[in-house]
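P.,

For your records, the input lines for the assembly:
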Amino acid sequence: MSSDPKLSAAALSPEEIARRVAREIPDRSVVNLGIGIPTQVANHVALGREVMFMAENGILGSGPRPAPGEEDKDLINASREPVTAVPGASVFGHADAFAMIRGGHVDIAVLGALQVSAAGDLANWTVPGAGKGGIGGAMDLAVGAREVYAIMTHLMKDGGLKLLEECTYPLTARGVVKKLFTDIAFIEFGPEGPLLREAAPGLTPDDIQRVSAPKLILPGPVGTYAAEG
Amino acid sequence: MSSDPKLSAAALSPEEIARRVAREIPDRSVVNLGIGIPTQVANHVALGREVMFMAENGILGSGPRPAPGEEDKDLINASREPVTAVPGASVFGHADAFAMIRGGHVDIAVLGALQVSAAGDLANWTVPGAGKGGIGGAMDLAVGAREVYAIMTHLMKDGGLKLLEECTYPLTARGVVKKLFTDIAFIEFGPEGPLLREAAPGLTPDDIQRVSAPKLILPGPVGTYAAEG
Amino acid sequence: MPPEKTPTQGKVYPGSPEAVADIPDGAVILLGGFGGVGVPENLLVAMADHPARELTVVTNHAGFGERGLAVLLRQGKVRKLICSYAFHRSAFVFREIYMAGKIELEQIPQGTMAERMRAAGAGIPAFYTPTGAGTQAAESKEIRTIGGRETLLEYALGGDFAIIKAHRADHLGNLVYRGTAANFNPVMATAARITIAEVEEIVMPGEIAPEGVHTPSVYVDRVVRGEDLELRSET
Amino acid sequence: MPPEKTPTQGKVYPGSPEAVADIPDGAVILLGGFGGVGVPENLLVAMADHPARELTVVTNHAGFGERGLAVLLRQGKVRKLICSYAFHRSAFVFREIYMAGKIELEQIPQGTMAERMRAAGAGIPAFYTPTGAGTQAAESKEIRTIGGRETLLEYALGGDFAIIKAHRADHLGNLVYRGTAANFNPVMATAARITIAEVEEIVMPGEIAPEGVHTPSVYVDRVVRGEDLELRSET
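C-alpha cells returned:
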C-alpha cells in the first residue's frame, strides 16, 4: 500500500482479501481463479458450499494442492501449481475449456487487475513498454465468465491511482468488472458507475474517494471491508 | 435401366456396382458410405485393405452387421442399420463427426446421386415438388470429403438423362464429384470435364455418349466396366 | 441469455414429469437422438403429458411413425421444426401436418446444424462454412469467399431447454454416452439454458473417471433415470 | 491443404528422430503442452538435432528456462512464434532473442488460439468471437456487432506438423490423455497436415474402448514412444 499511513494501516493483507472474496462467491458457483491472490481464494471457500473450480488448462473440479510427494505430474492448474481432482471432476483439452469459458458456463472469474476504469474496463495483462506478461486466457475469461471479480491493490507502489476514469494500460476487456476487491475497499459496478460497498476498518468513504479517480457512488451505508463478515 | 434393350442388357446390377466401387477405394482410406448402394460397398472391401469406415452419426471404424440377436441397441450407422465396432474404433457426437468430415479428414464419401452435371455438381437430396427426402449430412459430406464418389443409374426410369450439362434438381454441392459410377459406365471428372474411363461390356463410347448430355472426353482407351477387374 | 442457476448437487429429479414441468409455451427445445438411438424416450412421453405449446423443436429428423416426437406433432404442440431431414417416408405424421400448413419447417444441413449448436455453446456468435454454398441452403445467407472458397455465414443456434439422453450420469450431472448414442446429445447439452438428461443409470460422483466424462457437469442441470428403459419411439 | 496420405496401421515409428525427419525448413509447427505438462519432450529433443530452420511455432508460451523449445529458439531455428503468453519471467531465452530482433512474435488470446486451431481442424475458415474486442487484440481485425455485442473475425490457424504428447496410443493412432495433460494436444492433432504423437505407452487396437478414445486415429499420422519419459523441459 501507498505511503499514506492511514491507508496502509487499514489495508487488508492478500490473505484477508482472498477470504473476503471467498465469502462473496455464491454457493454452487463454477469459478475460475486467475494467477496470484485469486488462486488463494480456493483455500477459503468452506466445504459444503458446492463451489466447483475450473481452470482453463482443462479441469472442472480441481481440488486442494496435494501433499508433498503426492503430486501427479499430469495434474496442474492454470498457475502451473499441482492440484488434485475432486470426486466428480472432469478433464478436457483447451478447445473445450475455452468453449466452456466463452460460452458463459463459468459463473465467476476472479482475476488480478493492474487497472480498472469507471466503466468496469479491465487492464491486467501487460504494462506498456515493459516487455512483461502475456495475454494468456485473460481476455477470454474476462468476456466469457458471467461475472468478473477483480482483485488489486488500490494504489501503485508510488502512490499512483489504479481505479481510473479510463485505463492507461492495454485493456483486457471493456466493461466487464462486476466487483472489485482492493486492499482497502469493495466496489461494485452498476450501470451508473462504481458503487462503494465497503471500506476497510477506520476508513471513511472520503478516504477511498481520495485515492480513486472516478466519482464513487454511495448507494447506502458503507459496510466494513474485512475478511470475516 | 431404360427401355433401350442394349443398355439394359449390359447394365451392372447394384451389387456389381458396389463391387466395382469397392475396388476403386485405395488401401488405408477413411470412407463414408451414404444410404443405399453406397452402404453395400463395405461388403466388398477385402480384409487387409485397412479401409476404415466412418459414419456421420459418430463412429470411426464401423464393422459388419452383427449376427441376428447380437445387435447393440446403441450402435448403428447413418442408414440406421445395426453395425459392429472394429478393434480400434472410436465413437463421438455429431459436432465432432462433422468436424471430422468438414475438416477434410475423410478421404472418400460414396454418395447416391439423382443428377450429376458436366462440372461435377451433385444433386442428391430432393426432387422439386415431391416433398420427399431431406438434406441430412449430404451437403457436409459433399464439400468436406477429400473425394466424392457418386453412384446412380445412368438414366431415369422414363429414359430421361441424369448426367446433364446442368442439374435441374436442387443441388447438394457444386463441382465436387470426382468419380461417377453408373450402371453402364465409370466416368471421372477432370478440370476439362467428364472423362469416360470404362463402359459396360458390349457398349461403345458412343452408346454412353448417347445417354449423356455433356460431351464425354475419351482420354485414352475405354476400359471394361465390371465388378471384377 | 445466461444459463439459469442450478445446484451442482441435487440435480437428480424424481421422474420425467418433474424434470420437464416448467417448460413454458413457446420454448425452444433441442431434442437429442438419431435414427432411434440416444433418444430421451421417457422425457418425450412426459412432454406428451405436459401442456406446453407453440414449441420450436430442433432435432435431426421429423420423427418416425406415431410415437415420440410424432405424438407432440399430432398434438399440435410444435409451431416450428428445425431439422436436417424432414421427409423420411416414416415421418408421415410430420408430412401430414406440414402439408396442412400447420407447422413451420427449417431444414438445414446436418453438420451445419451441429456446428451452429456447438457455436451457441462455445460463445461463438457466427461462423463461415463451405457447406451449402451454391445450393438452396445458401438462400438469404450472407456469402463470403475465403481462401478462394465460397462460404456461408451461419449463426449460433441455442435453445431454452435441451432434452437429451445419456447412458450414465453422476449426481453432479457428468454424462457418459455409449456407442453411437451420443449423436446430437453432447452438443445440445452445451447449447441450452437448461439441459435435462435422461439416463439409464446414476452413479456417485467419482465413479466416472475425470478422463471418462463426455459431458462435464457444468452443462447439465437435471438428471432423471428413465422410467421405462425399453421404450423405443424411433424418433 | 489436404492431409498427406498415411497408413492407418504402421503408424508407430522406431524413434523420435525418425518421426520428425522430414520436417522441412519453413514448416509451421503446432507444439502441444501447457505449463510443463503434456509436452512432447522427446520430439523436442529430436527437433534440436534436426536441421530444419525458419520454423513458425504455435504453442501456448515462449518456453521456460533453457530446455525444450528454448533450445530451438537459441539455435535460431524459429522465425516466428505464435503464442498466448510470451513474456513469462522464465522465458528469458525468448526475451533475449526477441529483444535482439531475431524473432517475430504474434501474441493472441489463449482461447482464440485454441478456437482458431479447432476451426482449422473442423473446416471452418473463419468465425466471430467477442474475445479481444476493444483491445490491442482487435488491431487490424475486422469488427462486427452481432446481437449487440462487438466481435472480431478470426481465421482458422492450421499447421504443417503437429508435435504433440499423449498418454497412450494404439497402433492405429487413437490417443488417450491423462489429467490436464491434454491441453492443446487434442486440438492441435486436428489442425495439422501431419500429426506426430509422443506417448508413454502403445497398446493394441481394441485395448482402448471406442468411448474412451480422446483423439480418433484419423487425426494421428505417427506415433512414437518417448525414449526418456522422465524428461521435463517445462516448455
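Two observations worth noting. The two ends of chain D are 29 Å apart (CA to CA). Confidence is low (pLDDT under 50) at residues 1-9 of chain D.

Regards
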